[in-house]
Amino acid sequence: MLTIYFFTFCGFLISIQFFLILISYFLLNLAYSIKLKRIPVLDIAIVSFNYILRITAGGVLINVEISRWIIIVTYSLALFLTLVKRREDVILASRGFEIKKSMSGYNLEILNIGISLMAGVTIISYILYTISPDVHHRLRSDKLYITSLFVILGILRYLQITFIEKNSTDPSEVIIKDKFLQIIIILWLISFYLLARVIK
Fold first, then answer.
1. How far is CA 155 from the centre of its chain?
2. CB-side exposure of 200: number of CA atoms within 13 Å?
3. 151, exposed or middle or buried, with CB in 10 Å at 0-12, 13-18, 19+?
4. pLDDT class for 2, splitting at 50, 70, 90?
5. Which end of the chain is flanked by fewer CB atoms within 10 Å, N or C?
6. What angle separates helix 68-94 from helix 148-163, to the nearest 10 degrees?
7. pTM, two decimal places
8. Separation between Cα atoms, residue 4 and residue 8, nearest integer Å
9. What is the pLDDT of residues 87-113, one digit of tens each?
10. Average pLDDT in the 177-197 region?
11. In angstroms, rounded to a whole number, what is the distance separating the alpha carbons of residues 115 and 98?
12. 158 in Cβ contact with 181 (< 8 Å)
């Protein structure tokens, strides 16, 4: 509890906007822990929204305006990954493991549909981000859409891991263990940097 008070006080010293984001984050997570995590769909929405608060807080700290498309891409990707995690929980439940109460509102059919839907939304959102006028103006490049290739390949690889290899647990563990995803992420970073900073 003292840690929470300390970070909240530090947030207030940094800026009012950062302080409000920090308070929202703590209150939302408190509500999630007490009650909201038991409500299907709302639970994944809140987990995913936390990522929006984090990147918004980061933007405030470094004084960078966060693009609306970055928010959409982040939220849709977070939903995608959270749905994959819920799918793994449902599979564990079918094997007799104890899981969260909210999992009673999910089954493999709805989760498979949701995962496929959010995979498509994430890809489309990213493409729209790369061709948006504000990104062109800020990064002075109209070629960033080329990096969509790596996003598409990355999403497809994650779907392959989930549905075929059935080995999707924690997203960070998947990335650490999967060489293909690591290469895709590195190539995406390199291509984004070159297209945004070098190739005009």
1. 12
2. 6
3. buried
4. very low
5. N
6. 10
7. 0.86
8. 6
9. 988 888 777 666 666 667 888 999 999
10. 93
11. 23
12. yes
Nearest-angstrom CA–CA distance, 65 and 68: 9
Q: At what angle do helices 42-61 and 68-94 cross, to 10 degrees?
A: 140
* Sign for the pseudo-dihedral over CA of 165, 171, 172, 173: negative
What does the pLDDT look like over 30-72, one tens digit per residue? 899 888 888 889 999 999 999 999 898 888 777 777 888 889 9
| Encoded tokens for 70 | 């970055």
Cβ atoms within 10 A of the Cβ of 37, count? 17
According to the model, what pLDDT value does residue 14 have? Answer: 62
Q: What angle do CA 175, 155, 86 make, to 5 degrees?
A: 75
Looking at residue 175, its amino acid is I
Two tokens, residue 9: 């006080």
* The Cα angle at residue 164 between residues 115 and 185, in degrees rounded to 5: 65
Say how far apart CA 137 and CA 126 lie, in whole Å.
17
169 with 92: CB under 8 angstroms? Answer: no
Q: Is the pLDDT of residue 27 over 50?
A: yes
Query: How many beta carbons lie within 10 A of that of residue 157, not counting itself?
Result: 17
Q: Read off the tokens for 121.
A: 């939304």
The token pair that represents 185 in the structure block = 């992420």
pLDDT at 8 over 70: no
Residue 10, amino acid: C
